[in-house]
Amino acid sequence: MKATEMLHNLGQSLWLDNITRDLLTSGTLKRYIDELSVTGLTSNPTIFDNAIKNSTAYDAAVREKLTQGKSGEGLFFELALEDLTRAADLFRPIYDRTDGVDGWVSLEVSPLLAYDTASTLAAAKDLHARAGRPNLLIKIPGTKEGLPAIEEAIFAGIPINVTLLFSREHYVAAAEAFLRGIERRIDAGLKPGVGSVASVFISRWDAAVSSKVPDALRNQLGIAIAKRTYKAARGLLSSPRWHRVYNAGVRPQRLLWASTGTKDPHASDVLYIKSLAAPFTVNTMPEGTLKALADHGELSSILPADGGDCEEVLAKFAQAGIDVDALAAQLQDEGAKSFVKSWNDLMQVITSKSAVLKKAAG
I need a surface site. Which of 102, 108, 127, 244 has the fewest CB within 10 A? Predict the structure, then answer.
């Protein structure tokens, strides 16, 4: 049995952190679903930047949209929605079979809106309506300004993937924003079953401290943060407040482990997959990591519900001079800026590709 199937049978969802038109048209994504237990998919500006820049698969669609007067951001979202609605349709049987627990794809609002609550909410509503698929999650950053938009989007019935979370505290704030939106739906007499995941980024922790800590602590910070966050999630989901909303028919928000490709070339390529195995969570992984996992025949133990040794490990990082709270804020800020850079690069790719195709057509 492949390790991908073992993980799936354990109760963790394996999602692919990638989308390209070639993945769809070649049948590769369908094969991952059928053979590697992939049950969902995430995307971000960097992924689309690479997909469009490094492929001719989008040229015909870009050419067609140019004749319709489309450009820039508007043109990009049409391309993205075409890809993600096709992917959503591939995952739809899983969504239906699991009654909406699994089978999701994710599309991010423009990262330029990360600090603009009203515009983020408007964009989330627009993109979800245009997609017309129940199993499309809209990604909104869990920044201070993003949290009110998350609450309002959930209240409006829009499924949300809360992204750019780095710590237990970030996760708890996102979970409470989700819950406030759900409680408002219940009070308003609306159906409370709105899908959501909370995406906690892992590998960036270790990349940030790799040159600042002893070798004995290498590649341990991200996993310790994950364990601490998982303990908090287990506590929240079993609390009286959550039990009350379960009684009204709520679907719990699931923890999603993001940024789980190994950055350290000296570490196992499935370090963050084997270390973060836990039922009722999601791990979204790059294509290379997914393939590596399929080649491995065994898994480690599952995440301890009580956080295991996370506090002892985090205490060692504190002794080494790492301020975890300050670093979490820094990583979230850097993550938002990184997505903006990728977005700007993506817009440049769209502009330059449009210019080349116009010239060729002329």
Answer: 244
DSSP line for 62-107: HHHHHHTT--HHHHHHHHHHHHHHHHHHHHHHHHHHTTTSS--EEE
Tokens standing for 120? 């983020």
Write the CA distances from 31 to 23, 108, 355, integer angstroms: 10, 25, 35
- How many C-alpha atoms does 258 have within 13 Å on its Cβ side? 27
Write out the two tokens for 275.
């270390």
Average pLDDT, the chain: 95
What's the burial of 189, exposed, middle or buried (CB within 10 Å: 0-12/13-18/19+)?
A: exposed
Query: Are the C-beta atoms of residues 175 and 233 closer than 8 Å to each other?
Result: yes
pLDDT in tens, 271-292: 999 999 999 999 999 999 999 9
- Which residues lie across from 283 on neighbouring strands? 14, 257
Residues sharing a CB contact under 8 Å with residue 141, sequence separation 6 or more, in sequence order: 111, 114, 162, 163, 164, 332, 335, 336, 339
- What CA–CA distance (Å, rounded) separates 104 from 161? 10
Residues 252 and 280: their CA atoms lie apart, in Å, by 10
**Ordered alpha helix ranges (H), 247-306:** 271-274, 287-295
SS3 letters across 20-60: CHHHHHCCHHHHHHHHCCEEEECCCHHHHHHHHHCCCCCHH
pTM of this prediction? Answer: 0.96
* Tens digits of residue pLDDT in 196-231: 999 999 999 999 999 999 999 999 999 999 999 999
- Name the residues annotated as catalytic: 139
Contact 8, 293 (CB under 8 A): no
Neighbours of 239 (CB within 10 A): 11
Q: What is the mean pLDDT of residues 132-152?
A: 96
User: Is the predicted pLDDT of residue 362 greater than 90, yes or no?
Assistant: no
Q: Mark out the alpha helices in the chain (DSSP H runs).
A: 3-10, 21-25, 28-35, 45-53, 59-67, 72-97, 117-131, 146-155, 168-187, 203-209, 221-237, 240-246, 271-274, 287-295, 310-319, 324-361
